[in-house]
Amino acid sequence: MKLRRAFTVRNLVLHRTSFSRWLRLAAALGAGAGTWLAGAAEPVFPAADLEFFEQRIRPLLAERCYECHSADAKKLKGGLRVDSRAALLQGGDTRPAIVPGAPEKSLLLVAVGYANQDLQMPPKKKLSPQQIADFEAWIRAGAPDPREEVQGSKFKVPSQKPHWAFVPPRD
Questions:
Q1: For 2, 30, 150, 165, which has the most beta carbons within 10 A of its beta carbon?
Q2: How many other CB atoms sit within 10 Å of the CB of residue 141?
Q3: Which one-letter DSSP state was computed for residue 166?
């Protein structure tokens, strides 16, 4: 049988010190650790940033990009979808299309700005300088986008067979 230590002031101070160290460590990890442990939470954007997206960015994406880069596209080009924030963050065949807060690292901005001879989007007609500046401002603001992930009806998901344990026995 294990005996407990007698309660003394020295033991209380020792335990309190250990507890305060643990609290300091938890504080040092910050709130980011909590979201990491709980799973990545969607960022919350200011209403003005979402309004900017709805008025300037979404119509531009719908008009100039969805034809080739959405769940409803006849043929998805470059493996890139732009119909949700998650799809833009995932990117296409090469790398993520946007890096929130870093327009200089965002492939989408390189493509719409015609900065790369091999990657120019939209291919038919270059966007106006104001539209490119809007994309840059949107990415710099963290790419606020309220759209949810869209599951395309044109892309077939392999049907799953029921697990053998749930199939009734045959005679």
A1: 150
A2: 18
A3: G
